[in-house]
Request: fold
Amino acid sequence: MARITGRSTTHLTRRLVQLYVGLTLYGASSALLVRAELGLEPWGVLHQGLAELTGISIGVVSIIIGAVVLLLWIPLRQRPGLGTVSNVFVVGLAMDGTLALVGDLDGLGLRVPVMVLGIVLNGVATGLYIAARFGPGPRDGLMTGLNRVTGRSIRLVRTAIEVGVVVTGFLLGGSLGAGTVLYALAIGPLAQLFLRLFALPEPARPGVTVASGEPSSTTAPPAGSGPVTDPASGQAILPQ
Reply:
C-alpha cells in the first residue's frame, strides 16, 4: 500500500511539473512568434490586435481574453480543471516575461529561425500540458462546449472560431504572415507527436490488476464526426 501511495504521489508531481512547464513554454513560444514578426497563431493575432488598440501588454490581453472565454463556459456547462485556470494566468505571464528578455530581432536570417523555434516549441508545450491531464485550456473548452451544444463537428466549430478570431485580430492590427500559415499546417502533427512522447501511464491502484498488452476498452469517436461527450475530469482534448 505504501509503495502504491508513493508511486501515486510521484505520478501527481510529474503531472504538475508537466502542466506548468508546458504552460510556461507555451507563453514563451507565443512571445518568440511575436519577436519574429512573421505572423502569429490565430489567437495571438487577436491578442496582438487588442494590445495595439488598448496599449495593454499582449500577455495581459491574453489573460483577460482567457478569463472572458472561461466565463462563456458557464452557459455551456463546461467544468474547468486546474489546468484550465492555470492556463489563463501562466501563459500570459510567461509571454510578457519572455518578451521582456528577448528584444527586437533584425534581419530574416534571425527572425526565420526564431519563428520556426517558436512553432516547434509551441508543439512541445501543447504535448506537455495536454498529456498532464489537468483539463483543457479555456479556448479548447469553448470549442468542445459549442460542439456539444450545437451538434456541429469539432472541425467545423474550431474552424469557425479561429477564422473569426483571425479576422477580428487582423482588423485590429494583429500580425498575419508566413508564420500564421506554417503554424496552421504544423501544429497538429507536432502536438500529436509530443503528446505521444510525453504521455503518462496511469498510476497503479489498490486492488486493480492491469493485464499487460490489453487494449483499452474505450474507443474515441472519429474526429469531426459530430458531438463529443465531455472529457473526464482532469483530461484535455487535443485540438483537431
In short: The longest helix spans residues 2-36.
